[in-house]
Amino acid sequence: MSAHHEVDVTQVPQLLFALAFGVLFVLYIGAVMLTNRSYKKWPLYRMICWCAGVLCAVVAVVGPLANRAHMDFSMHMTGHLLLGMLAPLLIAMSAPITLLLRTLSTTYARRLTKLFRSWPSRIITDPVIATFLNIGGLWLLYTTSLYSLMHENSMVYFFVHVHVLLAGYLFTVSLIYIDPVFHRTSFVYRAVVLILALASHGILAKYIYAHPPEGVPQQQAEQGSMIMYYGGDLIDVVIIFILCLHWFKATKPRVVEQKDLEIN
Length: 264
Description:
Blueprint: H1 3-35, H2 44-61, H3 64-68, H4 73-93, H5 96-103, H6 106-116, H7 119-124, H8 127-143, H9 146-150, H10 154-175, H11 187-210, H12 218-251, H13 258-261
Helix pairs in contact: 1-2, 1-5, 1-10, 2-4, 4-10, 4-12, 5-6, 8-10, 8-11, 11-12
């Protein structure tokens, strides 16, 4: 396959991604400006997280890195970390659901809340299911012919990258609660699932090192697997820290004030 043809495969998806992320970026900033007139000002750090998250996603699927990813597996894996791990984490930290709920009218906010309380929402936001969609999807991508097919078919390329982003986001929000949570699970449950997910991700990286995906040179596979292994660990440390911080705050004994002890 020629390099020219490989780049052509991504032209339409890149345009779609650029348009989609551009619209989402504008909508988020617009929602912040609109709701700041009626509610408490939206935290600046959440806006920064949103901008950084969208930027990471755009860099991964639009432009030079996206083009190089078709010829260099290490570049592909760098894009994977940006699109499937760092961008979802930053987007989750920007609390988009909270912003959406305070932007919508009461009627539409209630309808959206009802959707979030439904049983399909409970299923896909369960940590085990979210992990299966995320890590399981990666195993499918890198251990079957799907990886090579992605470089030959624009639609496959587009949907694989959409899945990587959405599955990464679902995985992140199933473990750390930033937005309103309608189907809570215990900290122990989430911690156990996170440990298993990290192990599975690490094992996959080692598998890629020894068994490169179809069409990937051994040297590039080794470089890419190390990026996946060590780069993924750095991002996972942040998720672990946030989960532990929330756990600590939830179990920290409440300071009993003197007035609570007074007997009327």
